[in-house]
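INTERNAL AUDIT FORM
Audit reference: QA-55
Scope: verify that the stored structure record matches its stored sequence.
Auditor: D.O.
Record contents follow.
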Amino acid sequence: ALLGLTPLRAHRAETSLRREHESLLVEWARASRDVHRLSLWLQAIGALLGIGFTGLILYSFLSAGGDGGSALLLLYWAMNLPLLGHSLALTLQQYPPLRSRLARLLEPLGAPESAETAPISRTPELTGCAITFTEVDVIAGGRSILHNINLDIRSGEHIAIVGPSGAGKSSLVSVLLGLRQPARGVVQIDGAPLTDHLAPSVRAAVAWVDPTVQIWNRSLLSNLCYGTTGQGTSECVFDSNTLSEADLFETIARLPDGLQTPLGEGGGLVAGGEGQRVRLGRAFQRQHPRLAILDEPFRGLQREQRAVLLGRARQRWRQATLICITHDIAETQSFDRVLVMEQGRIVEDGAPAELAAQPSRYRKLLIAEQELRHLLWEDTNWKRWRMRDGQIESS
């Protein structure tokens, strides 16, 4: 709720949330009232039954010729039976919530462990991994998000994936990360089926850059070293080229404590583009990855800087298999192969130059991007502002 407070106010949804909250509170209050009412009725019935049985026991005892002293002792113990029963009932009422709490605490411990499998090799001599999708369907929430995906990616191949928002681009790579499971078809890595047992070793050999990759409220150094073989910054084998290749020197100079400056939860203390470069730097720290996944990796950065960082990433991972998902169609022209996705399907697959030279969906996307850029930056009807060092400049 705290993380969602700002978008809640941005969408002016306070009244809707307050109404929903009020309806939940009314429902909970009504349920609590019904429980208390039922509890009072049961207690009243139990008390009446206890008094009735006590009177019956005492009457039977006196009718059988029991003496007065014994009758008083019997009355004392008989009157205590309802109290003991009430204590037992309260104890039983506490059992369900205690059992639920214990089950929630023990649930992670009871999760099935992945079986030990031979991890995919990660040595400097090996190139990237080969990937094959065969008639793969992925269903989420009862809706098909990937349909009949047939794809062969050679070892060490660099490909780009483009398409409109919601086309299934991120869903495609989420299958490789083990975040989604195919409902039909087979995914193979180096000829081996990508099962739950193999997925952990595949993830260990992946360098992944995505705006959703978490930046922790720790120092910049800790964030760069997070996920490497060492468990702490003291054990981190820091690559000296990471800072320069990820363009982090300016960020370090701006931070008050340099590499030891906390970045805030979700990277809230650095700009969006700086956070993306931190994510890229963390990926550069991966030792000998065989698969690099770049999903909108340079969001929030200038066009020229995006091109430079993409070139560095491709050079750094030149032997790895690389998949780049982007909405910047122009930057995909440097790739040897591009996939165009629409509505969960691969509609085009080929060299960018060949697709751009013929009537194709890729060509339409490229032309639409060029027209939009012309409209925004060359049309005199638009007023343009630029942000530089926290200041707005009119251009």
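Auditor finding: record pair retrieved intact. The chain has a mean pLDDT of 85.
Action required: none
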